[in-house]
Structures are given as structure tokens and as C-alpha cells.
């Protein structure tokens, strides 16, 4: 890993109190049409904080802790499977809104973002790997689904996501029709430890 990693870094679940910081980071990572609205961010952090993970740096001066700064996040909710129940859940325009289906076994990741000044230090890889490991071991669901811009497919493949093909449903929205979006899934497998 890079020797320029930020000091005093930690990961914790996001809470509704983090909504403003999450919105600020969304606006640094995504154009207006792609970012979560404050209402949607608040919904996610209220409905399922355990599926929303934040990467923070602690602001330390000497031995005094001055505060914390959010430098990366993942926002997820459980997304419903197809209406007839025959297909595994994938991201749809509807599930990108204020949707969380507790009975679903698929976690949809709606946002992955790292603050621009901290990108290219393996931090998204670190945050996603931690997220996958925690969800696997807590048996929260059976798989994670994400839609990715085509250039980011190799990045997600390196973290164990499998490419399923182009997501055609989101293209119905002009905000998503400009580029190619790909469905990717990652199975969640619990690690077994020997006694
Ligand atoms: C995508 C993102 C989360 C990656 O964060 P990061 O901490 O820089 O990622 P890592 O350091 O763990 O990995 C870097 C790798 O990501 C990939 N990557 C990042 N941005 C990329 C881009 N625009 N195009 C293609 N690959 C990209 C590359 O494979 C890169 O490896 P490289 O440096 O060897 O080329 C970050 O660039 C970001 O927040 N972007 C804006 C929001 C966004 O697009 N999120 C993804 C939603 S699908």
C-alpha cells in the first residue's frame, strides 16, 4: 500500500447524524444527476446503517482528538428481486430511490466514493474489502449487486465482482443514458474458522 496513507484512519457504520457529511462527499464524487439526494441519503442511513460504511480520519493534535472527517463511503440497501421472484435482484431505477427490502438477500450498493485528494491510495479497495468481509461474516445477505460505469469493471472484478452484462433498465432515465452501465455481482461467503 501507498506510504502516503492518511494517519488515524478507521471504518465505522454510518449513522443518520452523518447525513450532511455523506451528502457533501456525494457532491464531490458524482455529478448532480447521479448523486443521492439528501432525502435518499437520510433514508438509507435510517433504514439500514449497517449497510452504509464510512472511512474516516481522526483529526488529532498532540494527544487531543479534535474531530473526525469522512473521506470515503459506501451506501447500500437491500434491493427487491424481480416482481415474479424468478430472478436475483439487480439495481433498477426504482431500487436506487428510497427502497430497502429487509426480506431480500441481495445488498445493492448505490454509491462508492473516495474524496478526490485521497484517491489512488487503495482506499476504495480497502473499504469495499472490509464491507464484503463484514457482510459475509454477519450473514446479512447472499450477494452484493452494483452497477458500474464500464471503465470501472476491471476495478470491481479485482475485488471479486462478476460482470453480468449491461444494465438496460437504468437507461430509461436520461441521467443514466449517456454512458454504459454494467451489472456486477459478488457472492457473500462466510469464512469458516477452525477452533
Ligand atoms: C472509483 C473510486 C471510488 C476509486 O477510489 P480509489 O480509492 O481511488 O480506488 P483504489 O485506489 O482502491 O483503486 C484505484 C483503481 O481504481 C480504478 N479506477 C479509479 N478511477 C477510475 C476511472 N475513472 N476509470 C477507470 N478506472 C478507475 C483503477 O483501476 C485504479 O487503479 P490504478 O490506479 O492502478 O489505475 C474513486 O475514483 C471515486 O470516488 N470516484 C468518483 C465516484 C465514482 O465514480 N464511484 C464509483 C461508482 S460506480
From TrEMBL:
Domain N-acetyltransferase: 9-183
Gene Ontology cellular component terms for the protein in this record: cytoplasm
InterPro entries registered for this protein in UniProt: Acyl_CoA_acyltransferase, GNAT_dom, SNAT-like
Domain of life of the source: Eukaryota
Keywords recorded for this protein, A-Z: Acyltransferase, Transferase
MF-aspect GO terms: aralkylamine N-acetyltransferase activity
Name by which UniProt lists this protein: KLTH0H07634p
Organism, scientific name: Lachancea thermotolerans (strain ATCC 56472 / CBS 6340 / NRRL Y-8284)
Amino acid at each position: 500500500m501507498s506510504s502516503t496513507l492518511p494517519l488515524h484512519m478507521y471504518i465505522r457504520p454510518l449513522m443518520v447524524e452523518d447525513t450532511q457529511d455523506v451528502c457533501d462527499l456525494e457532491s464531490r464524487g458524482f455529478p448532480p444527476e447521479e448523486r443521492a439526494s439528501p432525502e435518499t441519503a437520510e433514508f438509507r442511513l435510517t433504514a439500514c446503517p449497517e449497510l452504509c460504511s464510512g472511512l474516516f480520519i481522526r483529526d488529532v493534535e498532540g494527544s487531543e482528538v479534535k474531530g473526525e472527517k469522512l473521506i470515503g463511503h459506501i451506501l447500500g440497501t437491500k434491493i427487491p428481486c424481480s416482481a415474479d421472484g424468478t430472478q436475483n435482484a439487480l439495481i433498477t431505477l426504482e431500487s436506487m430511490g428510497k427502497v430497502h427490502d429487509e426480506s431480500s438477500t441481495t445488498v445493492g450498493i448505490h454509491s462508492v466514493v473516495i474524496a478526490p485528494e485521497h484517491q489512488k491510495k487503495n482506499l476504495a479497495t480497502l473499504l469495499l474489502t472490509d464491507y464484503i468481509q463484514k457482510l459475509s461474516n454477519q450473514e446479512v445477505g447472499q450477494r452484493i449487486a452494483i452497477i458500474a460505469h464500464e471503465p470501472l469493471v476491471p476495478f470491481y472484478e479485482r475485488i471479486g465482482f462478476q460482470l453480468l452484462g449491461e444494465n438496460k433498465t437504468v437507461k430509461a432515465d436520461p441521467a443514466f443514458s449517456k454512458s454504459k452501465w454494467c451489472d456486477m455481482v459478488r457472492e457473500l461467503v462466510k469464512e469458516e474458522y477452525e477452533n
